[in-house]
Amino acid sequence: VTRKVLNFISGTWTGGHPDWIERRNPADLSEIVELWSPATLGQLDEAVASASLAQLTWAESLPETRASILLDMARLTLERSEMLARELTLEQGKTLAEAQGEIGFAAQVFRYFAGEPLRLSGISGRSIRPGVEVDVRREPLGVVAMITPWNYPFLMPAWKLAPALAHGNSVILKPSELTPGMAARLAEIAEAAGLPRGVLQVVQGSGSSIGSALAGHPDIDGITFTGSTETGRQIARLLAPHKALQMEMGGKNPLLVMADADLDAATEAAIKGAFHATGQRCTASSRIVVQAPVAEAFHERLAQRVRALRCGPGIAAETDLGPLVSQVQHDRVRGFLDLAAAEDAEIVAEGLPEPNGPQGHFQRPILLTGLNSTSRLTREEIFGPVATLEIAEDLDQAIHLVNDSDFGLSASIYTTSLAHAAAFKQRCRAGMVQVNLPTFGADYHAPFGGWGLSAAGPKELGGAIEFYTRSKTAFTAA
Ligand code: NAD
């Protein structure tokens, strides 16, 4: 029986528009994974009203109550992880190992934020006026709208939801229309953990209808968005200026390999950063820059590894790269490959051919060189298993290439020189800089986010308190 995915409004699972929409398995387009029901605009209003009401009580709940619900969400996520990972692979396409990693990290995020309500925060001190005390406390933002992408369909909503709940907010989540099922599973976990009715709402629907109505809704207090830079622009225009805004958007994350680098470690980082998750990561390294003396040696190592990469159904153990998520995404990546051909790029290596068998959005990995630094391939986010190689003479030129970008999410350097590492960390314009580590990866207790066109507003994860709370200054005369 095909699963039916509903909306979660006021603590009730409910259908919306009468027409069900199909989500097909991107690795086998003949398979309908689920049918889902978009919420109506009336249901969106109902969800916002219910979230406003529930937030007042939730904000007053004892820290211990919020902590224990978040701990239960972590536990339930782990208990259900096998089923969740399998469904994630079927709905989104990534490999089972990647899906397991995503679910496991979400559980860790719940566990980390369970501690947050129990941590004291705030500042207190004496006023400049005699006999007066000042304290600056953090209070919940209020009703938070969340609009999330399809590339981490469980983790993205989870890593926003956990701090939102910890800090006493209520939430209206609008997940990507390509992955409605994982968001519904998250809400089931919240419900089973005893989250009070109305604190979390899930409204399913497209960006242009329910997404834009949510962003422009007068009764939300803020919005947190992860997705493309173009959608981010539209959302920022819809949001009233006095509302809080947090956005994590696209990236073009360079990986630098210096002549003194451990080339094996750098090769591993390039393979995982450029091609794993089928390149569909905001922190993917689709631009690789190598210092001239080791360029040939590095290209050879990388090419050898690329040639062995296998794309196929994420559910199969031998698959390195699952399919792309959709036809739109596949067309976009093919568009970049056509452009590469038009610009006379050289194909350094290709992965194993796409599988014969069920039709899916498969794309073998491709490593390119010979493009100049003004090409769209070296400047724009590709979001597919395609990477470009460039050569830099020295560190200055390499850092110049990193900084000559509108984005600024993550950048990596592989080097054994402390001086190179220090200069790179200091001079790169990016929200996250990494030394001898790949461009992807996050620590839940450290701020996550970019600069430039990659982000706006406070950081996520370890920086989340800045967005999910607002400060209030209290003056007391004794
Ligand atoms: P997208 O921008 O197409 O969609 C993201 C979400 O926005 C979806 O839920 C969509 O329905 C909604 N949306 C679309 N138009 C809207 C509108 N006009 N008003 C309101 N909502 C609207 O992005 P995507 O294709 O789902 O995800 C891929 C993008 O996400 C990539 O650019 C990637 O870099 C980015 N991303 C960034 C991070 C990060 O942390 N920086 C993490 C993951 C993904």
Describe this structure in words.
With about 475 residues, the protein is α/β, with parallel strands linked by helices. Helices cover about 40% and strands about 25% of the residues. The strands form 6 sheets. It has a 7-stranded mixed beta sheet with strand order 15-16-17-14-13-18-19, with helices on both faces. Helix 5 (about 155-165) links the parallel strand 8 (about 145) and strand 9.
Total helices: the number is 15
- Order of strands across the main sheet: 15-16-17-14-13-18-19
Number of E-type strands? 23
Helix content: 25-40%
Major sheet characteristics: 7 strands, mixed
The helix/strand class is alpha/beta
Low-confidence segments, given as residue ranges, are none
What separation lies between the terminal Cα atoms? 68 Å
Radius of gyration: 23 Å
Question: Key features?
Answer:
478 residues; alpha/beta; seven-stranded mixed beta sheet; six-stranded mixed beta sheet; 23 strands; binds nicotinamide-adenine-dinucleotide
Topology:
Blueprint (H helix, E strand, L loop, with lengths): L2 E3 L1 E3 L2 E3 L6 E5 L2 E9 L4 H20 L2 H17 L1 H12 L3 H19 L8 E4 L5 E9 L2 E5 L7 H12 L3 E5 L5 H13 L7 E3 L4 H9 L6 E5 L2 H10 L5 E5 L5 E4 L5 H13 L11 E5 H16 L19 H16 L3 E5 L15 E4 L6 H4 L6 E7 L2 H9 L6 E5 L3 H10 L4 E4 L11 E2 L6 E2 L3 E2 L3 H4 E9 L1
Parallel strand pairs: 1-5, 8-9, 8-11, 9-10, 11-12, 13-14, 13-18, 14-17, 16-17, 18-19
Antiparallel strand pairs: 2-3, 4-5, 6-7, 7-23, 12-21, 15-16, 20-22
The structure holds nicotinamide-adenine-dinucleotide.
The site of nicotinamide-adenine-dinucleotide (NAD) has 30 residues, from helix 7 and helix 8.
